[in-house]
Write a structure and sequence with these properties.
The chain has about 700 residues and is α+β, with helices and mostly antiparallel strands. Helices cover about 25% and strands about 15% of the residues. It is an enzyme of class 1 (oxidoreductase).
């Protein structure tokens, strides 16, 4: 009998030389002082060093640079964040000249076509994670302009979890798989993430977005994009406007439902990737209108929020979005690695007329992104990789380094010089040289945050107030799911207590499902609302929606007519049957089957149409999955159409989004009604 476990020295006796070697490097941080990697005690770990509380971040902040540099180089070669992405080529055109606001040339002439490359991504997961996880989505655009590359590196949500880049490594560490067991993948439903939230209350507003349907996009083609930060437009006269950037999808902003996303992660983990690829291949090019919100410099302090705070939105009802152009994605990549994986974005890649502000999160990103590429892409010459090359000529005195592609002629690699006539030479601003905006900066060097950044709850409440009843229900369910995975009850209670500061009704409803004490007070941090925040108010079009047509041999002659209607409206109808091959109509005609019921699933489609014909219905019923297919679509609030006998397979003949054509009924009105149901996306009254 082995009694080694009862011997307190047994573990030490059984250690290998490798175990003992590793033990020398094991560190327990519990109860210890915070230090730099040089052993220096750190007095401040939340605020980067700035010129004044609202001023720019200083390069001399060695602790910030050490912390961020270490974070940027933690993974090789996968991106630490936004690792799972998918990209496409396209072009951008401005609708009208923006000369009054910016001297950026690509925003001047509507006839100029600017090439772009866009990379969509998740944030938390690895390259091997699924597309449909609950997460923020990256929306990064590289404009290849005649003045050089301009990168708009944003997300599908207009705010972020933190206010200062000093906290970015902490936030990502908290949301990533927990380090002791590398679990869970691509999920925020775990203790360390929510522990971060309750101890960093500035994240409250972003949590509302993350728990909403915005974190479950139906498609990259149906997802808004935001620059997140406040930038500057500067015109030829040197006048500046604060600006925020928006991408508005022409197809509207639509989401999946939570149960659907979980099933899709197994049925098709590449769901969003495949959707984008297929749309472009079929000529259904995704389109996004480009909008700007602008504030004159003199109006900087006219609002009840700080316009430089990245955890705040500028409500569109107060500061309207001016639509100024459109981007179209019209070409897929030839090689995923060479293009999508090697593209290098950086918020500091700007052109004349676009400048920065003292947003402390943006200031940190201006350091971090180039630093990251040094590990990912093997050195300082990542700009010479084809996908990153500027279409504008490149001439400078930078030389050598890993993977250098340019062969520079001549002996000169310095400025100023006489041998080469002091070339390449700087370009004065009046001839197109980049000139930083001459903002006046004054103040003491401090590690602090402006008092104007300290309101963490009013816009979180505004977001809640702006939601429809269905959207609120989804937010509560998301909180309950996430917190239901949190093992430490005290963290669950702390989350409820925290969001009681946002809205007591929200906190009470969260509490009901997670075994915590509901808040004892009532009220909301704000009575304001912004209708633009609700997805219920988005564009609703049937274009490019996918319909599963359930049919078997003996389908009625009406089906081809309805399919023709759908096709003319830009709807994609694909036949699903018990077996692949072709099926024959009741009297004439054949249809090709694109999917067998074994390989298809309702979550892969936006709507379901059940063909008529007694023989067709009987054949569909030979596959038990048929009824589950229809029932699941019904439970996910999708539109369902049925022709004649096909209605016998529906779980309900009544309800919003259920459209039935009776035998011998005229089909044109049926088709129109079904297409209107498809355009609505979901029919939420089934949930109320």
């Amino acid at each position: 009998m082995d009694n080694s476990n009862s011997n307190p020295n047994a573990n030490n006796q059984n250690k290998t030389s490798k175990d003992q070697q590793l033990e020398q490097f094991t560190v327990d941080n519990d109860g210890k002082n915070l230090t730099t990697n040089q052993g220096l005690n750190v007095s401040e770990d939340e605020h980067s060093l700035k010129v004044g509380e609202r001023g720019p971040t200083l390069m001399e902040d060695f602790h910030f640079r050490e912390k961020m540099t270490h974070f940027d180089h933690e993974r090789i070669p996968e991106r630490i964040v936004h690792a799972r992405g998918f990209g496409a080529h396209g072009y951008f055109q401005v609708y009208e000249s923006m000369k009054d606001y910016t001297k950026a040339k690509f925003l001047q002439d509507p006839s100029v076509v600017t090439p772009v490359f866009v990379r969509f991504s998740t944030v938390a997961g690895s390259r091997g994670s699924a597309d449909t996880v609950r997460d923020v989505r990256g929306f990064a655009t590289k404009f290849y302009t005649e003045e050089g590359n301009y990168d708009l590196v944003g997300n599908n949500m207009p705010v972020f979890f933190i206010q200062d880049a000093m906290k970015f490594p902490d936030f990502i560490h908290a949301v990533k798989p927990e380090p002791h067991n590398e679990i869970p993948q691509a999920q925020s439903a775990h203790d360390t993430f929510w522990d971060f939230v309750v101890h960093n209350t500035e994240s409250a507003h972003m949590i509302m977005w993350a728990m909403s349907d915005r974190s479950l996009p139906r498609s990259f083609r149906m997802m808004e994009g935001f620059g997140v930060h406040t930038f500057r437009f500067v015109n030829e006269e040197g006048k500046a406007h604060f600006v925020k950037f928006h991408w508005k999808p022409v197809l509207g902003t639509h989401s999946l439902v939570w149960d659907e996303t979980q099933k899709l992660a197994g049925k098709d983990p590449d769901f969003n990737r495949r959707d984008l690829w297929d749309a472009i291949e079929s000529g259904n090019y995704p389109e996004y209108e480009f909008g700007v919100q602008m504030i004159p410099e003199e109006a900087e302090f006219d609002f009840n929020f700080d316009i430089l705070d990245p955890t705040k939105v500028w409500p569109e009802e107060i500061i309207p979005v001016k639509i100024i152009g459109k981007m179209t994605l019209n070409r897929n990549t030839d090689n995923f690695f060479a293009e999508t994986e090697q593209i290098a974005f950086h918020p500091g890649h700007v052109v004349p007329g676009i400048d920065f502000t003292n947003d402390p999160l943006l200031q940190g990103r201006l350091f971090s992104y180039t630093d990251t590429q040094l590990s990912r892409l093997g050195g300082p010459n990542f700009h010479e990789i084809p996908i990153n090359r500027s279409v504008a000529p490149v001439h400078n005195n930078q030389r050598d380094g890993m993977h250098r592609m340019t062969i520079n002629k001549g002996p000169v690699s310095y400025h100023k010089n006489g041998i080469a006539g002091n070339t390449p030479k700087p370009v004065p601003p009046e001839k197109g040289g980049y000139e930083h905006y001459t903002e006046k900066v004054e103040g003491r060097k401090v590690q602090a945050r402006s008092d104007s950044f300290k309101d963490h709850f009013s816009q979180a409440a505004m977001f809640w107030n702006s939601m429809s009843d269905v959207e609120k229900m989804h937010i509560v369910s998301a909180f309950q799911f996430e917190l239901g995975k949190v093992q430490r009850k005290e963290i669950r209670q702390q989350v409820v207590d925290l969001f009681a500061h946002v809205d007591s009704d929200l906190a009470t409803r969260i509490s009901e499902g997670i075994g915590t004490i509901p808040p004892q007070t009532s009220g909301s941090a704000s009575s304001e609302s912004s209708p633009a925040l609700s997805m219920m108010n988005t564009v609703k079009l049937p274009l490019t929606r996918k319909v599963a047509v359930l049919a078997g041999n003996g389908f009625t002659d009406e089906l081809p007519f309805v399919l023709s209607q759908l096709q003319q409206a830009g709807i994609i109808a694909e036949v699903v049957s018990p077996k692949l091959g072709t099926i024959k109509g009741k009297t004439s005609g054949e249809l090709e089957v694109q999917h067998s019921l074994l390989g298809a699933d309702s979550v892969l489609f936006d709507a379901v149409l059940v063909a008529g014909g007694a023989l067709s219905v009987s054949e569909l019923l030979t596959e038990p999955k048929t009824l589950d297919f229809i029932k699941e679509a019904y439970q996910h609030f999708k539109p369902i159409g049925a022709i004649a006998e096909g209605a016998n397979l529906l779980p309900s003949a009544n309800g919003e989004g259920i459209v039935i054509a009776q035998e011998n009924e005229e089909l044109k009105p049926f088709g129109q009604a079904f297409m209107e149901a498809i355009a609505a996306h979901r029919h939420w009254t089934r949930a109320i």
